[in-house]
Design a protein that fits this description.
Length: about 130
């Protein structure tokens, strides 16, 4: 059966799902970990899982501190929470963008070597005509 998606696009989909939502990642990453035969794809899903859990924990801490600041009103602490959550959002975007770009670069680097190997193999398979 012909594969519709290459492994590099599967890895990019896993990282994009990790950025969008933990539920989307659970579906895409869980499927990759359980059903995939490719160890590199499983490694990518596990790495994305760790990164997603780190950002999920930081978001949980921000929610807890935000709830605390609502009970005890402090304008300085509330402003800090707003700026901290903004910095975490920028860091999250940068982290997932970095990993997606790295997958694109790795995919581009692997492609030419595969194309060069194919014609050499075909020439060896052709019997010489006399």
């Amino acid at each position: 059966m012909k594969e519709v998606w290459s492994n590099s696009w599967k890895k990019i989909l896993i990282w994009a799902c990790g950025y969008v939502s933990i539920i989307a990642f659970a579906i895409a990453g869980g499927y990759a970990i359980v059903k995939s035969e490719d160890e590199d794809l499983k490694k990518t899903a596990k790495t994305c899982f760790i990164v997603t859990l780190v950002f999920l924990a930081v978001d949980a801490l921000i929610s807890i501190f935000s709830a605390i600041s609502q009970g005890v009103y402090s304008a300085g602490f509330a402003a800090f929470i707003v700026w901290f959550s903004f910095a975490v959002l920028i860091l999250k975007i940068a982290a997932y963008a970095f990993f997606i770009v790295m997958e694109l670069v790795n995919a581009r680097g692997e492609q030419p070597s595969q194309n060069r190997a194919l014609p050499a193999e075909k020439e060896e398979d052709i019997p010489e005509q006399k």
